[in-house]
Amino acid sequence: MKPFSWIVTALALAVSVGAPAQQKSAADGIAEYRRMLEDGNPAELFEAKGEDLWKTARGPKKATLQRCDLGLGPGVVKGAWVQMPRWFADTQRVQDLESRLLTCMETLQGFDAAEIAKTGFDKGEQATLAALAAWISAESRGQKLALPQAHAEEKRFFELGKRAFFFRGGPMDFSCASCHGEAGKRIRLQDLPDLTKNPGDGIGFAAWPAYRVSSGEMWSMQRRLNDCYRQQRFPYPGFASDVTIALGVYMGVNAQGAKSIAPALKR
Amino acid sequence: MADPMRIRAQVAGDKATVRVLMSHEMETGLRKDAAGKAIPAWYIQEVSAKLNGKSVLTAEWGASVSKNPFLQFSVRGAKLGDKVAVTWKDNKGDTRTDEATVS
Amino acid sequence: MLNRRKMLSHSAQVATLLAGVGLLPRGAQAAYNAPAFEIKTMAELAKSLGGGTPTESKDVALTGPDIAENGAVVPIGVSTTLPGVKKLLLLVEKNPSVLSAMFDVTDAVDANFSTRVKMGQSSNVYAVALMADGKVLFAQKEVKVTLGGCGG
Description:
Strand content of chain C: 35-45%
Largest interface: B-C, 31 and 37 residues
Number of strands of chain B: 7
Oligomer: heterotrimer
CATH superfamily of chain C: SoxY domain
Number of helices of chain B: 0
Order of helices and strands of chain C: HHHEEEEEEEEE
Largest sheet of chain B: 4 strands, antiparallel
Distance between the termini of chain B: 27 Å
Radius of gyration of chain B: 15 Å
Shape of chain B: elongated
Structural class of chain C: alpha+beta
Radius of gyration of chain C: 15 Å
CATH topology of chain C: Immunoglobulin-like
Number of domains of chain C: 1
CATH class of chain B: Mainly Beta
Number of helices of chain C: 3
Strand content of chain B: over 45%
Distance between the termini of chain C: 38 Å
Largest sheet of chain C: 6 strands, mixed
Number of strands of chain C: 9
Number of domains of chain B: 1
CATH topology of chain B: Immunoglobulin-like
Strand order of the largest sheet of chain B: 4-3-6-7
Order of helices and strands of chain B: EEEEEEE
Shape of chain C: globular
């Protein structure tokens, strides 16, 4: 679509609505569109799949994930999502959900975590991860983000995430901050949340994982970050790498107190 | 075997509002893959529903219905505890039936 | 609000679309009507009128957004409160295949269906009610699409 034809469209919309209806801006129109889709989020299909995968014996060890510790104890899923990423004693690492699931899938079920990390999104066990992320985040729906920052490593990862967030590079000299470093920015019709602070309930970090209607795919935060890097024309740091986990810590801690609406519905 | 549907059937007076999410690619056959080859059409063609075993809905769809289709309809004469079964059949002949209880 | 000229133009367009898909009232219900869903261009659809003249009707309702953030998923509802409806159709004028969905209306369900369709571009969307007495009634709405939903 041509660069500013949407402006014309928006203006046309604004002036073409007749009396006695109120003038509807493009933003109002989009808000109405999103409201119409709220009931019946296809993410529910992935939630059902994720729950099933959690409870099914799989992998070389033919075990379920029901002993997986997401930070609140083995098998405790409710409330775990809003406290991730966090530090884990058994791996001596700060891990986000995807990283932690790789740990569990390897230790409990015998999968090869490195192989899964190299697998394309939506293929093979990556599809498993997307479904698990949908269900696990659903089990914290409505809860407030409360990432722990007590451990020294958690604090270090926050600082690492901040540096990564503002690091400019790639052929376009973009950083995360280029799009998400201040309030009031927009790409086409999508508002870009300011991720250096709490952008509000259900926005930014609190809105992922999400079902993306444009591709009909379930996107975890790792996938969202992968696409951000692609849009920046910057090499992707790698699935569940420290940098991506650190970015999660930075965004999540900044959004402390925001209500999670995951799994959400996105363009 | 295709993934299960999500069916919610809520009583509303003497009717039940049925909302269904189906898991299906709904490929139009018009898209091309990275190599330039057309991705074969694969989409739900027929949808039907039954209330306690009796047919209440039949519909025909084309490939332009969205991926992971959503359907909402209202069944008359439904009560709490009634069973609503939804079936889809696609152009490859695959089919799936799932059931929900009116609550 | 609509002047007579616009209404006639709309009626003609719907008649053309319906004639093209061979859907103006006909005999017994066949198996999946594949040809109807394969018609690709408006030009192919421009066939002679058959059956009743489609008339725009306030008794047929089409719900949908004014603007869709993404054409891949556009929520549309088609309904009518009139008795004697045989089928409710959903048409997207500028799609490669104009017919999106066709619902049989029986006494067991309300003539009220919602689904989501892919729209390749901004287009008129039609809800068409085929009545038992041969009448064809429709409602239409323009839905603007900011990003086409067919290209992936």
